[in-house]
Design goal:
211 residues, mainly beta, 4-stranded antiparallel beta sheet, 2 helices, 10 strands, 12% helix, globular
């Protein structure tokens, strides 16, 4: 009887873990994007965090979008090239993976994305970054394993912009991009800034797409 109860409870446990890690992952994104939740399968989530979990909700024309990401603080450290090495894959934040939720199809930096949930990570360089988009959202942020990378749907190479002043806390922000159906998603930290264009239109080319 006890064994039967445990077996019957496994599907419920799986659904609960999926909900905690990804936020309403079983509900279609057109109905609910999902809140920015901590991953309680990691022991980090049961202790005070040095990097806050933040959420950024915005719209791309008639599409709803949400970005969930950790916000590490510089704390007088040299970030790019040291704390975040050049040429190495970085989770684009802290703790959980940086997750992008889309209620409708959107093009991100030339990569067409159907409605759904994605993770973003990057390979920073001195003058340009490669930003990757993956369908994996259940991994821990720095666990960018071959299995996670096998679920990549595309990548884009974007230039680095030099900021006039230092940004101490890793920050994502959304800006108008000269058209009602386009916005710019920017990431800033230290004196580095990169920008990804999101639009509801057709991408200009297949640059960055993986076969």
């Amino acid at each position: 009887m006890k064994r039967r109860f445990l077996v019957a409870g496994l599907p419920i446990l799986a659904v609960a873990v999926t909900f905690v890690v990804s936020g309403i992952a079983l509900v279609p994104p057109s109905l609910a994007l999902g809140p920015c939740l901590k991953d309680y399968t990691s022991t980090v989530s049961y202790r005070p965090r040095a990097s806050a979990l933040a959420g950024l909700r915005f719209r791309v024309a008639d599409a709803d979008a949400e970005l969930c990401y950790g916000r590490p603080i510089r704390r007088d450290r040299v970030v790019f090239g040291q704390l975040v090495p050049f040429g190495a894959i970085w989770r684009l934040g802290a703790n959980e993976p940086t997750r992008l939720y889309l209620s409708k199809p959107v093009t991100l930096a030339g990569i067409p994305l159907p409605a759904g949930r994605y993770s973003l990570y990057a390979e920073p360089g001195p003058t340009e970054w490669t930003v990757y988009v993956s369908r994996s959202v259940l991994h821990w942020g720095n666990d960018i394993s071959p299995a996670v990378r096998s679920r990549e749907v595309g990548h884009a190479i974007v230039p680095v912009e030099l900021l006039p002043e230092t940004v101490d806390t890793f920050t994502a922000l959304v800006e108008d991009h000269g058209s009602p159906d386009r916005v710019a998603l920017a990431f800033e930290w230290e004196r580095t800034r990169i920008t990804l264009e999101l639009s509801r239109g057709t991408p200009p080319s297949n640059l960055g797409l993986r076969p």
